[in-house]
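Minutes, project huddle
Topic: does the predicted pose make sense with magnesium ion bound?
PN asked that the exact inputs be recorded in the minutes so nobody has to dig through chat later. Recorded below.
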Amino acid sequence: MIIQIAWKNIWRNKTRSLIVISSVAVGVFAGVFAMAAINSSVVQRIDAAVNEELSHIQVNSREFRSSSDIQDLIPGFNEADSALKSLPGVKTTTGRIIIRGIASTSAKSSGVEINGIDVEKEKEMFTLNNKVIPGTGSYFGSDTKFNSVLIGEKLAKDLNIIRYILTPEAVARLDSLKIPSRVLSKLETISGERFTSDKKFNSELEKLLTSDETGKYAIHIKEAAWSYREGAKLILTFLDMDNNQTGAGFRVCGIFRTNNDMFEGMSVFVPARELRALTGMKEETWHRIIARLDNDDLTDKITEPARKALPDLEVLNWKEISPDLAMIADFMGQIYAVFMVIILAALAFGIVNTMLMAVLERTKELGMLGAIGMNRKKIFSMIMYESIFMSVVGGFAGMGIAEAVIAATQKNGINLIKYSEGMEAFGYSAHLFPTIDAGFFVSTTILIVLTGILASIYPARKALKLNPVEAIRTE
Amino acid sequence: MKVIEIRDLHKIYKASDIEVHAVNCVNLDFQEAEFAAIVGPSGSGKTTLLNLLGGLDMPTSGQILIDGTDLSMLKSSALIDFRMRNIGFVFQSYNLIPVLTAKENIEFIMSLQKWIKKEREERSFELLKAIGLSDRTNSRPAKLSGGQQQRVAVARALASRPKFVLADEPTANLDSKSASTLLEIMEKLNHEEKITFIFSTHDPRVMKMARRVITLEDGKVVSDDVRE
Ligand SMILES: Nc1ncnc2c1ncn2[C@@H]1O[C@H](COP(=O)(O)OP(=O)(O)OP(=O)(O)O)[C@@H](O)[C@H]1O
Ligand SMILES: [Mg+2]
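Predicted holo structure (tokens), as shared on screen:
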């Protein structure tokens, strides 16, 4: 009865109620969607960290992380490996050889971390093979007979593993950019020719074009003619087991692209057997064991048992290896909390205002209800129900909209590439795929509705203070 | 049978430094099924007396006994409950809940008293017929004329069979035709249901229809005429 009247009362002033309902809806939507977007970047980052870079758990000798010494192998690898594997929740493990070294091409050189891997296992455990830029190689496919190496896009750029070819497509693109045809015709002579370095291409352009033209168009021409060089050669140098400098030429069998510049610039991967041959490391010796768990949530749960099982080794999970990740996730949570507090405060203000108006407007009616025998509890709950209904209707509407928008943007994502430079340097994708878990959905809605309820207490108490005699006094 | 006993009732309003003796030593009894008008010039204390009788206001001194219950002994929540069970109210305006239909308004107090649906509906059907609004059962107050609204208010006041009904100038906002229709309906229901009606009025024609007329002046009862 009271509930029914409360519901009907909402629709007495449709405009006002709709304003409140839609502001609740917008609040819920904004809160949920912002969180989904933030969540997306954090989830993607963590996914990438776990799936491409770190895995869940890493085990190595106690000295290895600080010394990076090739001699700091895992003692008794096989026992350690099977001890780790036997823990419930551990899905797979693999060994890695990790050596500091220098990668160089004829143009440049750069310090790298060389990972000797078991190619088949890594393919199973990581998704890096899916991140290879099409046309740059086959990720240790059968076509690589020579020593092969997988490198990141950043390193490829640093080492200048690019080439310039003026293909017909490149010319067409330049044409569409309104590059004058006199310039394009001058370039015809080098059409299809391959330039394997910046320097060579630059000097060729300078020869063909006036300095004015190069100044104006070189950037565009290079952008159009640019591509990665397949099967480029680079030299890796490092110390072998006897501390003698060694090295060899490797052919690039793939260039991977991730959102993490640091990882792209530092990590190179080569088959373990090739490294063993070059360093003299014995079979079954590794610097690190990396383990994948059945799912991300097991990370904290399994770290301790793993430590107990491997007391002589250093066992770290991805959160410990990369505390910045955990911190950023925390930080995002704080940003969200501030955001939510602002939304909720605005909401509370709106509801207090509206319901106060509704109460004052109905002074006489509420006085009459009190006089004829509606008790304080019922009057109080009637006003509360009115606010709760508005919050709930608005809350569900907002969730619906958020759900719809998230579903719509999840497929193609929200591309912030324009603003991406800062983000990608730290490994955060600028392409967001909003995701949210059900629990969060529910908790946001509860928060909103709770705010609605709390905000209506004041107007409802105001309604109780009305004195029936005063309220219905006919003037 | 005595329904209401009023003993040495005083109500003094203190507005800043002036004291207004709105009800001044009133002693009255009301019997079952009375149809009584309270009249008197403006400011004579009619509204104040009715509010005291209805437990909406507290007397400065004196007693009001309703069926032996002293109103001043009830705590505020018990008083609200007591009002709901024993007293029907008809005000000059703002009587009805705007979002409910005529029928729902009549059933409102019965619902608060948790009457079962069937009995509620029988009762509201009967009353809608009695007030001549059977065809407006599902109209909301805004769709009814002032006179029709007051008729619904009378039906609402009577619906749960209170001991008596208080009506403060129920016809004040009505034209004379609607006013006399309302009074006729009130009288008919008073007769059929044996429920005491006490109403205040300025209107001489309304006064004429009362079987007892109590005249107030400066808060005192100056005459109390019972006619047959
Ligand atoms: N809340 C109040 N505070 C102070 N004085 C009041 C209050 N209510 C009523 N009075 C005074 O008490 C006296 C009686 O008022 P009351 O409203 O009972 O008169 P009434 O007979 O109903 O008048 P009317 O015919 O104009 O309705 C008046 O002098 C009025 O000014
Ligand atoms: Mg009056």
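Observations noted during the meeting:
- The CA atoms of residues 232 and 322 of chain A lie 32 Å apart.
- The interface with chain B takes residues 1, 5, 8-9, 11-12, 364-365, 367-376, 378, 468-469, 472-474 of chain A (CB under 8 Å).
No decisions taken; revisit at the next huddle.
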